[in-house]
Amino acid sequence: MKSTLTFNAGVRYEYLSPYTEAANRLAALDVNSSFTAAVPVLAGATGPFTGVFPVTLVRPDRNNVAPRVGLAWKPAANWTVRGGYGINYNTGSYLAIAQQLAGQPPFATTATVLGSRATPLPLETVFALTSPQQTGNTYGVDPSYHLGYVQIWNADVQRDLMRTIVLGATYTGTKGGDLDIQRAPNRGPSGLRIAGVPPFLWESSNGHSLMNSVSVRVRKRPTHGLGAGAAYTRSKSMDDASSIGGGTVVVAQNDQDLGAEWGLSSFDQRHRFNADFTCELPFGPNKRWLNEGGAAASVLSGWLWSGDMQFTSGTPFTARVLGDFSDVGRGTNGSLRADYMGAPIALDRPSVLAFFNTAAFTLPAPGTFGNAARNTIRGPGTHAVNLALTRNVTFAGTRGVSVRVQANNVFNQVQFATIDTFVNSPTFGQVLSARPMRSVQIVTRWRF
């Protein structure tokens, strides 16, 4: 628009059709608006509540218009302001839905063979004892399912303090909509809600999310063989979706209280600090030491020392009940949450055997849902330092040798990873695994 202001605008439209099966062998459930009745329905058939279904069982989402806008403004010589807004759509949902629909009766059967202590099941003959029988449908999807989307907006301010040092600050906002929610509408606290209908999962696109983050950074451009940078980010992300950011799919605990699913995102990290540096070692030609040649200069010159470090707070976990008999009988497992007793959850000195205060949680009473919110237990953070030495030696033409010595977790610090948050587990509250300890790798590459 002028020498100090650049503006970009665009729009993307992408259409993806839901999957069909070659012989229309897809099956789902047709439910009424109050989820008090459910009947099986086949691809292209007519249901009593919804009417005619397409052969995909899911109507295509044709509204995926994704605008993009951005600007860069230079109000003064040492200042730069940038901003932008855009929408992105999740185009990978239809395949997972089709795989579920294709595994439904009458196109799939199952068999259950029960043993006991008195009559155990020998593996060599157990499959000969089966008599496959058709079971009821256990999965349904909203025919008006929409592809999830996320809106992202950001603003960035950057200032050049001097020729080689740059300061900056960035705000980023993210809002998701039409995100996946997996529900169990036929599940009540003490049994099934719909008589004669087996437990089933229902997938819809009613979830949403909200994330805000602010980061500050400083960067020294490489001069005199040295470059470095550091950045700190504070953020908070919340959602009520079954899976977001690659997390594990978790069925909503109480289908009659979906509002209770709103909580911290499974990937929420409140604090993140990253730093890195590169340094040319001061040996060899045009350097401070060993600049007159010789055997020592041949060995030590040309090396680049680099490193990075990361310190982050942990991601959150949920206190759950695993393998509850009545929960499994209603078609879910691991979605029942614990009861929160009101005590502080974090410990001043977490250890392997007690990473958080287990007394803050207990099993819910039989026939009730737990009152603990999602993701209230803050998991282990990371504190890693990695270093590397690299040297490139060039011969005639394009030939050369590259040598790199990489050390990860160079100080060999123990870093906890997974913790047990199942309240009925014998290891509840304990650390179950750790991240890798120090490793050193030497890589040599010959170019010709």
Describe the structure in your own words:
This protein is mainly β and 448 residues long. 5% of the residues lie in helices and 40% in strands. It has 3 helices and 22 strands. It is globular and about 90 Å long. The model has no long low-confidence stretch (mean pLDDT 90).
Fold blueprint:
Elements: E1 5-13, E2 27-31, E3 38-42, E4 46-47, E5 51-52, E6 65-76, E7 79-89, H1 93-102, E8 139-141, E9 149-160, E10 165-183, E11 201-223, E12 226-239, E13 263-264, E14 271-280, H2 295-300, E15 303-312, E16 316-317, H3 325-329, E17 339-340, E18 361-362, E19 377-378, E20 382-394, E21 400-408, E22 439-447
Parallel strand pairs: 8-11
Antiparallel strand pairs: 1-6, 2-3, 4-5, 6-7, 7-9, 9-10, 10-11, 11-12, 12-13, 12-14, 14-15, 15-20, 16-19, 17-18, 20-21, 21-22
Summarize the structure.
By secondary structure, the chain is mostly beta strands. The protein is built from three helices and 22 strands.
Question: In what range is the share of β-strand residues?
Answer: 35-45%
Question: Percent of residues in helical segments?
Answer: under 10%
Helix vs. strand class: mainly beta
- Characterize the biggest β-sheet: 14 strands, mixed
- Taking the alpha carbons of the first and last residues, their distance comes to 48 Å
- Tell the overall outline: globular
| Order of helix and strand elements from N to C terminus | EEEEEEEHEEEEEEEHEEHEEEEEE
| Number of E strands | 22
Which assembly state applies to the chains in this document?
A: single chain
User: What radius of gyration results from the CA coordinates?
Assistant: 29 Å
Count helical runs.
3
Residue ranges: pLDDT <50 for 5 or more in a row?
A: none
Average predicted confidence as pLDDT:
90
